[in-house]
């Protein structure tokens, strides 16, 4: 259920704004909302340079962003001086302003490794809280290890649904032409784990410890990098993803498709059965709890 935060307490808004400012300073950028056509056109060019879509199929257009901004939605950019290095676009979902859906966010290659994505998301969080919105959702490819770690550990978002082939074929330089399975992440902006993550103290999963405690390995990679399934017969289940699915799709499309099918069956099946993803180890493992805790 979508959470609506009414009359968000000023201390929480101030805390969120301070965390966003700290993240922007640490990454060496200024993050601000955008409304002018020239800025919005720069956002569309940035997204095209990141996703490399087929001609005539841009991720967004400047006209769409202009309309969205005029309707009160969110577009922001991260600037190093005059240079746009990252951007994020989201729109409100129902019921009216019940939650913000973050549709697309990206950082230019030359901005990688600086924490710009984190700065953008914390700016988005502070902006949403200022609108009395307590929840942001977005989708991400569950096979992309760095995104899973960023979303589930760095931000402390949690997957709500596994969505098979959510967008259909996208035909771009990142997704290729295969199925576009997604996890729908939900970010509870006021929860203690999210507040801790925003302050730079996320809760990190440790699968080595979990395995010693009896966690089951339901999906792993064999010596050749192919997916291998195992029993999901414990309260805590570990589900692996490959190190770099984007490179794998280019070098071995068949193996990339095999991982898509395996992850859909295992992770999607666990979630459909009521299990919850509780974290992600940077070593490439989803941590899944089959038993709900209060």
Automatic annotation (TrEMBL):
Key words of the record: Transferase
Annotated SUPFAM superfamilies: Acyl-CoA N-acyltransferases (Nat)
Alphabetical list of Gene3D superfamilies matching this protein: 3.40.630.30
InterPro entries the record matches: Acyl_CoA_acyltransferase, GNAT_N_AcTrfase_prd
GO molecular function, one term: transferase activity
Protein name per UniProt: GNAT family N-acetyltransferase
């Amino acid at each position: 259920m979508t959470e609506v935060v009414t009359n968000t307490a000023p201390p929480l808004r101030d805390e969120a704004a301070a965390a966003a400012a700290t993240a922007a300073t640490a990454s060496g950028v200024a993050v601000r909302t955008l409304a002018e056509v020239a800025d919005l056109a720069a956002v569309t060019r940035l997204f095209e340079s990141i996703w490399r879509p087929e001609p005539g199929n841009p991720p967004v257009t400047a006209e769409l962003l202009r309309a969205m901004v005029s309707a009160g939605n969110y577009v922001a950019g991260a600037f190093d001086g005059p240079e746009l290095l990252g951007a994020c676009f989201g729109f409100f979902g129902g019921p009216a302003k019940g939650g913000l859906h973050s549709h697309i966010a990206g950082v230019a290659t030359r901005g990688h490794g600086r924490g710009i994505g984190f700065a953008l998301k914390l700016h988005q969080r502070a902006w949403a809280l200022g609108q009395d919105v307590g929840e942001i959702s977005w989708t991400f490819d569950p096979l992309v290890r760095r995104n899973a770690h960023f979303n589930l550990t760095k931000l402390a978002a949690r997957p709500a649904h596994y969505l098979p082939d959510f967008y259909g074929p996208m035909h771009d330089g990142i997704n290729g032409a295969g199925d576009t399975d997604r996890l729908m992440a939900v970010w509870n902006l006021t929860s203690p784990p999210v507040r801790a993550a925003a302050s730079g103290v996320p809760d990190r999963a440790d699968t080595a410890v979990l395995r010693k405690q009896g966690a089951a390995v339901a999906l792993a990679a064999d010596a050749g990098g192919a997916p291998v399934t195992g029993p999901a017969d414990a309260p805590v289940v570990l589900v692996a993803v490959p190190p770099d699915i984007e490179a794998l799709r280019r070098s071995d499309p068949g193996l990339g498709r095999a991982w898509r099918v395996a992850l859909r069956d295992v992770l999607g099946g666990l979630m459909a059965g009521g299990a919850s993803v509780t974290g992600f180890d940077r070593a490439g493992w989803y941590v899944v709890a089959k038993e709900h805790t209060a």
